Structure formats: structure tokens, C-alpha cells
């Protein structure tokens, strides 16, 4: 298999043995490299021998994983178990975090977080977690992976996050955790006059800061003759930005978003009111055949002994994968950004080290490389203006005393302007 490894960089990271398997190249050093490939295979999950030429077709793997993502059930202790956890988003990297005495613990994904209670999605279905008296639920986010005692469902500990979305609430305090381990953030906007590049840049900065892959989703494409002008307006907002157009109410939307919604992948939706987030969620989430199972709602007794239904924020996607929808995610705003802005305005961040002053604001300073680029016509003045506005907004919203939460460093990282 030596020759198979040689050109692995250009092959699907999950199936390097199959040339042209899917469009996900193997980039080992890239922390944003996705774990699940488009065709639904995972690195290390499928048995090696099956992946050697005569194994099941990729579509077969996809079908198996789909069924698993929807049921979340384990039938035996063979590969099916691992695949079920993988359908929930479990990865080898998460497994590396387990200590030798932790392999007997259940691995679950947090589905709801309330002040005094939390629920999680396990391989066997949704469960209510037993919290220690001193546990602070504010330290957990929907999408977190946690280790849980099998019999009691006692929460033992949280695993390190891959990505984390958080927001700062009015009145300061620590940022509130919104969602964790989100692979892709769908930034939803419509093909109409409401399209606002500056607003999209805010969401892009948030996605970058969280470590998620942003995708601009242009809805209501069915209401315009040609959506291309809208695509053109957003494509240049960030390097290598992925943009799709769709009708959020049409079943075909699932196909359009399939590259990011494979089994085991987690997405979230952000965007202004009325752009079609709920419509898209309904189209993506499998609601028809078995509502309770698809949404994994839990019936539990409230303080007055009544049975209530806890609506989860982690919804199964019809074709596999998960979409997180929490009230908080709809009201994200800019704060605690550093790398998020650098990625969004990469052309400015790359010039900044050439400025004479390390804390150059690129407004009036002599020896400013950014101003020089604008003067030379290689940098758009409007981009610099929007960068400054966002940078100032971020500075206003971010108390200097705040620090990192979870595993993402949100401040004092990268270049400070
Ligand atoms: N024709 C068409 N209508 C759409 C599309 N997406 C959304 N709509 C309609 O636009 C309206 C708003 O859509 P919602 O899905 O409620 O938007 P939202 O983003 O969830 O709005 P909030 O709940 O206020 O945040 C509804 O009447 C939808 O039917 C689309 O792609 N095509
Ligand atoms: Zn400068």
C-alpha cells in the first residue's frame, strides 16, 4: 500500500485507498480538515480490510451511517457501535482524550443545557444527565462530548472541544456558550435587497473565531430570475468562501447542503429574521416518519410533577449529521474576536506586519503598509473601512479582563491591532 500513501494529499482523507473517492483531500496538519468525507466514510471507523478495493461501495457505507444517525441505537458491540458514535460525531481525536480508566464510560453528546439540568444524546438514545451538586451547567454547550457513568448517567467530565460558538450577553460577564463541536456554520441570507455584506462579515468573523467552516447559504433563489448577481456580491467577502443558492422550502435543498451534512457532521444556522432558517431546519431535519425519535425529545417530570417535553437543540438531519438550533445562536453578535477577523480580512492581516508600528491602526500612521496598498490600488478602501468598523465594534464589546473559555482562546491570540 506504499504507493497509495504517496499521493494521499490529493485523495479523500477517509478513503485514501480509492482515487477520486470524494472531494475531501487528506490534509493531516490542517486542524479544519473535516473528519467525515462527502461519501460518508470516516477515517479509522470502517474496517481497514473493507476499504481495500473490494470493500462495500461508498454508497453502502452512507446508507448504513444514515440509518444509524437517525436511530442512534447500538445493536451489538462490533463495528456498529463505533459507527453509531461516529454518526453522532465521534472521532478518533476525541478517543485520544480518553484515559485508560475511562474506556468503560459512555460517550454522549449534550443535547440541551438548562440552569439545573442537562440532557444528552447517547448511542442508545436521549438521556437526562445526573449532575454533581457543584456542577455549573453554564460550563457546557449543546454539542459538547461528555463522559458518563453507564448505569447512573452521572456526568463525569467534558472532552476538549473542536470548535465553540459563544456570545457575550448584555451587561458583561463571561461569554455564554452557545454550541460546541460545530463543523460548519451555515450563514443564511436571501436573494433579495436585505442582503448585507457587512452583516455577513460579522457572521463570518464569528464562524472563523469559533473554528467552524462558514458556508454562505443564499435562500429564496426560486424568487429571482438569476441568483448569480447575489453570489457575486458575497463570494469575495473572504478567501475560498463557499456559497450555495437554494430554495429553503424545497427538498432539493438537502442535496445542495449534503457536502456539509454527512453522517457525523454537525452544522448550525445563523442569519437575520425571515431569511429562512426555520424553513431550512424543517427541510433538513427528518420530521416525517417518527417525530419523537428524530428530534430525540425527552419526557420528564417538572417540579410540579407534570410531564413536560424537553425540546432538544440537536436535531438529526435526514441524510445523516446534526443541526444545532438554540435560541442563543440566533442572537450572536461580535465580541472576543482575534483570529476571526484575521481570517476574514486576510489581505489586511497579511500586510499589517509590514507597518512601521506594531499597533498600527492603518488610519493615518506613517509607514503603514495597508494605506500604501490602498494608495497603490491593490487593496479596496471599502474593505479597510469595514475592517475598522468591525474591529472597533469588537473592541467595544470585549472587556479586556475577559479570557478564554472552553478550549478556544478568544483573546490575546494572534496579532492585536
Ligand atoms: N420562496 C421561498 N420562500 C422562503 C424561502 N426561505 C424562506 N421562505 C419564506 O420566508 C419566510 C420566513 O422564513 P423563516 O424560515 O420563518 O425564516 P427564519 O430565518 O427562520 O426567521 P426567524 O424565525 O424570524 O429567525 C417564510 O414565509 C418562508 O416560507 C425560500 O428559499 N424560498
Ligand atoms: Zn498600518
UniProtKB/TrEMBL annotation:
<feature type="binding site">
    <location>
        <position position="368"/>
    </location>
    <ligand>
        <name>Zn(2+)</name>
    </ligand>
</feature>
<comment type="function">
    <text>One of several proteins that assist in the late maturation steps of the functional core of the 30S ribosomal subunit. Helps release RbfA from mature subunits. May play a role in the assembly of ribosomal proteins into the subunit. Circularly permuted GTPase that catalyzes slow GTP hydrolysis, GTPase activity is stimulated by the 30S ribosomal subunit.</text>
</comment>
<keyword id="KW-0479">Metal-binding</keyword>
<feature type="binding site">
    <location>
        <position position="360"/>
    </location>
    <ligand>
        <name>Zn(2+)</name>
    </ligand>
</feature>
<comment type="subunit">
    <text>Monomer. Associates with 30S ribosomal subunit, binds 16S rRNA.</text>
</comment>
<dbReference type="Pfam" id="PF03193">
    <property type="entry name" value="RsgA_GTPase"/>
</dbReference>
<dbReference type="GO" id="GO:0042274">
    <property type="term" value="P:ribosomal small subunit biogenesis"/>
</dbReference>
<dbReference type="GO" id="GO:0005525">
    <property type="term" value="F:GTP binding"/>
</dbReference>
<dbReference type="GO" id="GO:0019843">
    <property type="term" value="F:rRNA binding"/>
</dbReference>
<keyword id="KW-0862">Zinc</keyword>
<keyword id="KW-0547">Nucleotide-binding</keyword>
<dbReference type="GO" id="GO:0005737">
    <property type="term" value="C:cytoplasm"/>
</dbReference>
<protein>
    <recommendedName>
        <fullName>Small ribosomal subunit biogenesis GTPase RsgA</fullName>
        <ecNumber>3.6.1.-</ecNumber>
    </recommendedName>
</protein>
<feature type="binding site">
    <location>
        <position position="362"/>
    </location>
    <ligand>
        <name>Zn(2+)</name>
    </ligand>
</feature>
<dbReference type="InterPro" id="IPR010914">
    <property type="entry name" value="RsgA_GTPase_dom"/>
</dbReference>
<dbReference type="GO" id="GO:0046872">
    <property type="term" value="F:metal ion binding"/>
</dbReference>
<comment type="similarity">
    <text>Belongs to the TRAFAC class YlqF/YawG GTPase family. RsgA subfamily.</text>
</comment>
<dbReference type="InterPro" id="IPR030378">
    <property type="entry name" value="G_CP_dom"/>
</dbReference>
<keyword id="KW-0963">Cytoplasm</keyword>
<feature type="binding site">
    <location>
        <begin position="271"/>
        <end position="279"/>
    </location>
    <ligand>
        <name>GTP</name>
    </ligand>
</feature>
<dbReference type="InterPro" id="IPR027417">
    <property type="entry name" value="P-loop_NTPase"/>
</dbReference>
<feature type="domain" description="CP-type G">
    <location>
        <begin position="174"/>
        <end position="332"/>
    </location>
</feature>
<keyword id="KW-0378">Hydrolase</keyword>
<feature type="domain" description="EngC GTPase">
    <location>
        <begin position="180"/>
        <end position="330"/>
    </location>
</feature>
<feature type="binding site">
    <location>
        <begin position="219"/>
        <end position="222"/>
    </location>
    <ligand>
        <name>GTP</name>
    </ligand>
</feature>
<feature type="region of interest" description="Disordered">
    <location>
        <begin position="395"/>
        <end position="417"/>
    </location>
</feature>
<dbReference type="InterPro" id="IPR004881">
    <property type="entry name" value="Ribosome_biogen_GTPase_RsgA"/>
</dbReference>
<keyword id="KW-0690">Ribosome biogenesis</keyword>
<keyword id="KW-0699">rRNA-binding</keyword>
<keyword id="KW-0694">RNA-binding</keyword>
<feature type="region of interest" description="Disordered">
    <location>
        <begin position="291"/>
        <end position="311"/>
    </location>
</feature>
<feature type="binding site">
    <location>
        <position position="355"/>
    </location>
    <ligand>
        <name>Zn(2+)</name>
    </ligand>
</feature>
<dbReference type="GO" id="GO:0003924">
    <property type="term" value="F:GTPase activity"/>
</dbReference>
<keyword id="KW-0342">GTP-binding</keyword>
Amino acid at each position: 500500500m506504499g504507493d497509495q500513501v504517496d499521493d494521499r494529499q490529493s485523495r479523500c482523507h477517509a478513503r485514501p485507498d480509492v482515487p477520486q473517492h470524494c472531494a475531501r483531500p487528506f490534509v493531516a496538519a490542517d486542524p479544519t480538515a473535516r473528519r467525515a468525507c462527502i461519501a460518508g466514510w470516516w477515517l479509522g471507523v470502517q474496517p481497514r480490510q473493507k476499504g481495500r478495493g473490494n470493500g462495500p461501495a461508498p454508497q453502502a457505507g452512507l446508507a448504513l451511517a444514515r440509518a444509524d444517525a437517525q436511530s442512534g441505537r447500538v445493536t451489538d458491540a462490533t463495528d456498529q457501535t463505533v459507527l453509531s458514535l461516529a454518526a453522532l460525531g465521534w472521532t478518533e481525536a476525541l478517543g485520544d482524550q480518553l484515559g485508560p480508566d475511562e474506556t468503560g464510560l459512555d460517550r454522549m453528546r449534550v443535547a440541551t443545557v438548562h440552569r439545573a439540568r442537562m440532557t444528552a444524546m447517547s448511542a442508545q438514545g436521549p438521556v437526562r444527565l445526573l449532575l454533581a451538586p457543584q456542577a455549573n451547567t453554564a460550563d457546557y454547550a449543546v454539542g459538547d462530548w461528555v463522559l458518563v457513568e453507564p448505569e447512573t448517567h452521572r456526568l463525569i467530565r467534558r472532552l476538549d472541544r473542536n470548535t465553540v460558538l459563544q456570545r457575550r450577553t448584555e451587561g458583561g460577564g463571561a461569554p455564554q456558550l452557545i454550541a460546541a463541536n460545530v463543523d460548519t456554520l451555515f450563514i443564511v441570507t436571501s436573494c433579495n435587497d436585505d442582503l448585507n455584506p457587512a452583516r455577513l462579515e460579522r457572521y463570518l468573523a464569528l464562524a472563523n473565531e469559533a473554528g467552524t467552516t462558514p458556508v454562505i447559504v443564499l435562500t429564496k433563489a426560486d424568487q429571482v430570475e438569476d441568483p448569480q448577481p447575489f453570489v457575486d456580491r458575497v463570494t469575495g467577502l473572504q478567501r475560498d468562501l463557499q456559497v450555495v443558492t437554494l430554495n429553503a422550502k424545497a427538498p432539493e435543498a438537502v442535496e445542495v447542503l449534503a457536502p456539509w451534512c454527512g453522517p457525523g457532521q454537525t452544522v448550525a444556522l445563523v442569519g437575520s429574521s425571515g431569511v429562512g432558517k426555520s424553513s431550512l431546519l424543517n427541510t433538513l431535519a427528518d420530521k416525517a416518519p417518527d417525530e419523537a425519535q428524530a428530534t430525540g425529545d425527552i419526557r420528564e417530570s417538572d417540579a410540579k410533577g407534570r410531564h413536560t417535553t424537553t425540546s432538544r437543540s440537536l436535531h438529526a438531519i435526514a441524510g445523516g449529521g446534526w443541526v444545532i438550533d438554540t435560541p442563543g445562536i440566533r442572537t450572536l453578535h461580535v465580541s472576543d474576536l482575534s483570529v476571526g477577523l484575521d481570517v476574514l480580512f486576510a489581505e489586511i492581516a497579511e500586510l499589517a506586519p509590514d507597518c512601521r508600528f506594531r499597533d498600527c491602526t492603518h488610519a493615518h500612521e506613517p509607514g503603514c503598509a495597508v494605506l500604501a496598498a490602498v494608495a497603490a490600488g491593490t487593496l479596496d478602501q471599502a474593505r479597510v473601512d469595514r475592517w475598522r468598523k468591525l474591529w472597533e465594534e469588537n473592541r467595544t464589546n470585549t472587556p479586556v479582563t475577559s479570557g478564554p473559555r472552553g478550549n478556544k482562546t478568544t483573546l490575546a491570540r494572534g496579532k492585536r491591532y
